[in-house]
Every structure is written in C-alpha cells, then in structure tokens.
Amino acid sequence: MRQYHYLNESADFILEDPELTSYLYFPIANENGVMASVTPSLHGDNKMGQNTYLLAPVSVEELHNSKASRNFWCIMEGKNPWSVVGNSSNQQANLYKEEKEKTYLRAGIMWQEVERISAVYGLKAKVLSIVPASGETVELMKVTIENIGVDSVTFTPIAAIPLYARSADNYRDHRHVTSLLHRIHTTDYGVIVNPTLTFDERGHKKNEVIYGVLGTARGANPPVSFYPTVEGFIGEGGSLEQPRAFYSKNLIPMAAGESVAGYEALGGLVFENVTLKGGEEASYTIAMGYGNTEEDFKKEAKKFLLSDKAFDDEVQYTKNYWNQKINIHYRTGNQEFDYFMYWVNFQPMLRRIYGCSFLPHHDYGKGGRGWRDLWQDCLALLMMNPSGVRGMLHDNFSGIRMDGTNATIIGTKQGEFIADRNNITRVWMDHGVWPLLTTNLYINHSGDIRFLLEEITYFKDMQAVRGEEKDTKYDEGLGKRVKTIQGEQYQGTILEHLLLQNLTAFYDVGEHNHIRLRGADWNDALDMAKERGESVAFTAAYALNLMTLAELLEKLEEHGVTSVLLAKEMQILLTEDITCFNDIERKKDILYTYCKQVKESVSGQKVEVFVTNLVRNLKNKSEWIKDHIRNEEWLTNAEGFHWFNGYYDNHGQRVEGDFAQGVRMILTSQVFTIMSGVATKEQVKDVIRAADHYLYEEKMGGYRLNTDFNEVKLDLGRMFGFAYGQKENGAVFCHMAIMYANALYQRGFIKEGYHVIDSLFRHCNDFSVSRIYPGIPEYIAENGRALYHYLTGSASWLLLTVLTEMFGIKGRYGDLYFEPKLLLEQFRQDGTAKVEFIFAEKSFEVTYQNSKRLEVSEYQVSKIILDGMVYESKDLRCIRRSDILKLSNNQMHLITVVLC
C-alpha cells in the first residue's frame, strides 16, 4: 500500500493518491481564531468558534458523505465539467478504475497542497490551502491550472464554496429556519453573507459577524459573475457534485451588486474564459473568511487577492512562522523517527488553538480545554517555549476550590474559570495530580523554588464539600472567588493550593481505604462508580505527589524558609496521629469537618507550620499509601502472572484479576504504581511480564489499555459499552501507553520503555496500517487504524519522555543535567545522537558522542565540552545554571557530551 515520504528537514511530506484513504484530514489555523480542517478533496470545515462557522461543521462521516467542499471547476465545451479537487460525479465514479486521475498531496506544518493530473483533459491543477500566520481571519486557496498537452485548451473557471455562516447548533436544529436569516449580496470580487440574527444557546441576537468568499484571477482580475445561492447553482435534481448550472440555460449567474435573501449561500465565483496553450498556466486566488464589518473582511482578503507577491510572501511567512516555533529537533540513527517527532512536537500547539474540539474526530464539546489539558499542555510549553509558562501556571492555580477540587469549565482568557450554570456536579479524582507534576517540572527547569510562595485566589461557585453539597448562599454576582468572613478575597500561596489538592485526596477514601473514584479519574469513561468506586491507580499517583511536595519543601528549607503560613482551617488535615491512616471513618470525618469549615467562606486566619514538621507529615502519608497498596492490591493469578489491581467498582468489588469472564488487567493500574515507586524493582519486572502477555498487541502498535472484560460493566463505566478494541475499551490508548514508557524509563527499565515508544512509532509511521499523516493519535483501534489525530495529550507526554528520559535532558532546580538512556541502535553510524532544545532561554545543540559504540548499560557521561571548552564540574553530568546564564542569548551553544 502507499506510504508517505518526507521531503526535507521541516518534515514536509508527499502522499500519492491520498483520496483513496478515508478519514484523512489536515489542520490549518492561526492564532487569531481561525480553525479549519481540510481533506485531500478539500472537504472539511472552517470556524472561529462554536457559534461562528463559515463552512458547515463536519464530523468524520461527513468527510466522505457530504458533497459540500471547497470546489473549483473547469467548464469545457463538449466535455463533462472537471473539478480540480476531484469532486464531480464522473470523477467519483472513476475513483477505483484505470481512468482515475493521478493525485499527490504535499503538506507541511499548517499548509496543504493537492496536485491532480488529468490525461483526459490535458490539465494539471494544484490547490494550495493555508491560513495566514500573520493573523488575518481568512483561509486562502491558490488554484494553479496548467495545460500539460500540446493543443490549446479553453475553459470557464468557477469556484463553488457553500457558505454555512452560523452556529454549529443549527446544523440539525433549525437548519432551514436559520437560512432564512441570510442576507446575501454580490460585490465586485465575491459573495458576502450577513445574517440578520443568530439562533443559538445565547438566544436570538443581532448578528455581528460577516462571512464571505472573494476571489481574483492572475493580475487581480475579478470574477465576471456569481452564483450566490446553493439552490441557484445546483438547480432542480442537481447536486454540488453535478450542478445543473453547467447544463441549464435557466440558471443564470448574477452580476456584481445584486442581492438575495433567505437561502443557503454559495461562494460561486465565475471567472473570465481562459485559453491555455501547451505549457501555459493560469492561477486563481480565493479568500474565504470573516469580518466584524464587510469593509474589514474585504480589506484583509484583498491583501492577498490583489497581489500574487503578497500571497506568495504570506505562504513563505506562514511556513517559516510555524517551523520556527518547533525548536526541538532530533538526529538519531532513525531519520524517520526524527521527522515523526517533528510533527509530535507541533501537536501541542494545535491543542492551544483548537482545544479538544473543532476537528472532525473531536466532535464532542464546544471548544476549549479541560482542567487536565491546562497542565499537560504546559509540559510541552516548558520544553519548547518556557518564557510565558510561569504566568500561565500561576493563573491556572486560581481554578482550585478550597475543598481541593477545581473548576471544570475553562474560559477563553488565561486564568479564567466559569461556574457551571447547569449545576452539573462532577468531581474527577485525578485532577489534583496534574498541577504539581507540571509545577515540579517548571521548578526543576527554572530553579524558581520561591514560585511556591506566590499567592493567588481560590475559585468559588455553588459546588461544595467535594461535590457532595451545594452552597445555597453563593451569589455569582459577587464574584467567583473565595471570600473571608469579612467579605475580602482570600489568597493563599501556590504551596497551599497544592497541599490542599493532595491532602484532601488523601482523606477522600472509600471502603478499601483508597481514594474514591467519584465522577471518573484520568479515564473519563470510568464514570459509573461514583458511590463505591475507588481508584487505586491514582491513589499511587497521590503518593508520588505527597513525596514530591516533601522534597520541594526540603529545597525551600535549603533556601532559608523554615516555616510557611497556611489557612487555619487546614490544621485538621495535618494531624500527626498516623493511627488515623488506617481508620476509614475517621479519615472521612476529618475531610468532612474541613470541607464544612470552608463551604461558604474562610476565616482568613493563617497558622505558622514548620517546614520540618510538614515534610515529615507528607512523607508519612506517602509511605503509608505505598505500603497499603503493596500489601492489599498485589495480585497473583492462576497462570502465575502478577500485577496490581487498580480499581474497585460501584459494588465495592475488586476489578482486576481472574474472573469467570476471563483475566482482567488495566494498564493504568500498572503505570502509576510503577511511576510512583509503589512497585518494587522485582514487582516492575513481574508487571512487565504480565503486560507483555495480556496487553501487548503487535498489530495495534503496542499495549492495550485493558483486557476484554466480556461484560457491559454498568457498575464501573461507559467504556465497557464500547466495542472491545475501540477507544477506552481495549484500544492502544497512546496517552497511557506513553506514560507507561515514561514510568519504565524513570525506573531504569530502558529497553522496555523504548520498546513501548518504538512500537507506537513504527505503527503510526506505517501509513498502510495507521492511515494517518505523521504524528501521534489518541488511540489505535482493533483494525490498526489510528484515530483522533492531532488533539491529544499523548503528544505532550511523548515530547516530554523522548527529551527528558530517552535523551536525558533534565532540569534539576535550575541546573542542566545530561542522563541519556539511548540504546546503541539509536545512535547514528558515526556514534552520535543530537538534540536541539531551549533551556534557561538559551538555545543548545547537544551531541552525545558514543565513539566506542557502547550499549546503554555500558556507558556513562565522562566529559562535557561547552562551546569548544571542557566544562569543569563536580558532577560530570551537570552544567550549573549560573554558568548557563552567562551565555549569549543570540547563538546556538554547542555541547558535546562524551560517553564512555
């Protein structure tokens, strides 16, 4: 089967006959709000938000079912109309015949070009699609048509782009009624749609967005006429793939300056007839997009329509803009892996633009990111663009409630959190894990330990007592911030916020003394066990967090901080009586007593807590959790395999082990017990053996998320209603698979960790089975197809794991450490492996020199050469931050790390 091939160092690629693979789509967007998806046949949509769609919203099935596309036609006398993007009935009929036209897709970061060659018509067409990185709210198409024959060819060029121009809510709800709102008129250069009102969840309001399609032929020549409505173009019995306008004299295009109202709109632009001699070409530029006024839209569009040079310059600017943002580069013994990682490094940028929605597979929700995304996307930002992360982290902490839970509706502005007006109470028990993980990475990279002492507010809404009760006195009009009993905004340190999240989780236990599952944990589909469910897996994660907090406090103490101020109400959470750890009811009472104290307001009083005592308190809690899980949740099954149970269902029953329906094992349970240190070295070996036996599936690219439970397990979660091998139920869920690799690397199981990543890479990089463009998807299904591409936390975790674990580029309280875990096969033939990255605002290229061709278990760092000079340090693996800060900001600093 066809494969894509990389073309250059920017990982641009080419794919032959892309339209023969279903479900392909490509993101093109900018940072000013334009978000589009485009397929090889130029299907897809374009929007600036849930309520502002230029092109009709699409889910994955519409990609091949819908006839609406960004179409461009050549009409020739005596021949069937030819679509330069393949969207005519005749071309579709020949798709799998010898007469199929040859097509090639070329693409790079945020641009796509499709080339189509027709021997029948003697024409070659290229269509370049891009959204300007310079910020204009338009999508641009450049159509270039070349006569590849000998004889002259005459044709009429026609662009035909259906305009939806309203909220996605109206795609099924009031689709026709909202078309009655359309006021459409033609201008010198195109078609403008100005709906009178908007119908969506905000109510009936005056529309404030202009939509349109404008175009020019080479030389800035405008169209000669227009088809401004779908009905006036396709005619009776026609379609967008066989419009009657090409056959009927009754469907006459309109001139500029005409108006029509109450119909589905079309950007139908008819250009002047053109005759091309052999070897000649004609080009057409199309701009589709938005404006606050018609004048604004025209002004932005015409920048590119009236000047071929301006268009070409923008294409180059956009390519350079995005490629320059990708500042992590690898050079290993496998160039395909290096290019693959180039695309992975790009994916977190897409998450910041699209959130978790607005691409065809991501058809849930209405945009924005969730709580987890705020923190996990920062992992990638810390690696690639650390300069703005401090403020972002700081502001994110204002989403935490005083009961240790957090807001789940994230606003569009940094640090903006929104109260749920629908009063839907849901608590994800894993949410307290992620802020510390990201903050710890930030502190280690920056050395900014005093960041923990910065103060910030807490989030307040009606939800209280960890989702168990409502604060009926809450008035959103008084603000979404926790107040003292005196009515003043309360602020606590970031350390206090982190302690609250993790201490409240410690006490929030079920009948087996593990943290309650509540609404769900990381796996959102474990959502049906909120009464008696428990997550052992994330209890282990909180054990790691408690130990991490203790270590950060010890570092604070080294910097002269011997005591910290905490909210007076928190004293009860810091009990020194470790006998209560085994007493489930007492733990619940402690938590309830605390939560009731902060339900409506707080005293505003603070108490001094000595750091030494706090460290001991946290370590005791962490060690208790680890011992408890080791003693209670280590399983041995009938076949002699061992692993950890990670969950209890809503009947209070253990989830994993041997059952009548078969063996039940979940990867998540193993990841966090390994990563947290709950699992001993010997237990890690046993877990690997069990995971390889029960979860590894080579045809799917790696480790399934779980075995087949052979039950629609309504007492645990909706995932068991999914077909086995799909999404959360037994697919290779890349996010957790990569975290498994990360955990193995951290614990010193390097070959095993590499095997996880290499399996995923080889599968995704094989287009014949994965059927996706370069990058990491959310999951891989039973048939090997990769799904939910681009917008996935998998990318951040893979970036983090490859850079910090595989290449061993690590920050440690601001110093730069080199702890490579590269296998011999990952080095190039000359014994080197290279990585470029940013650290402390400086650019570095590190070359690992393994001249003796040693395996990972045989080499260690013996020397560091910085900018040509041997670097002297007590620790041979380290460059001190004080020395890094002396380096120039305006050059790439070369480091050679000699391994022997």
TrEMBL record:
It comes from the Bacteria. Keywords: Glycosyltransferase, Transferase. Gene3D superfamilies: 1.50.10.10, Glycoside hydrolase, family 65, N-terminal domain. Residues 321-461, 618-806 form the Glycosyl hydrolase 94 catalytic domain. GO terms for biological process: carbohydrate metabolic process. Signal peptide: none annotated. GO terms for molecular function: glycosyltransferase activity. Pfam families: GH94_b-supersand (PF06165), Glyco_hydro_94 (PF17167). InterPro entries: 6-hairpin_glycosidase_sf (IPR008928), 6hp_glycosidase-like_sf (IPR012341), GH65_N (IPR037018), GH94_catalytic (IPR033432), GH94_Enzymes (IPR052047), Glyco_hydrolase_94_b-supersand (IPR010383). Residues 120-304 form the Glycosyl hydrolase 94 supersandwich domain. This is Cellobiose phosphorylase-like protein. It comes from Lachnoclostridium phytofermentans (strain ATCC 700394 / DSM 18823 / ISDg) (Clostridium phytofermentans).
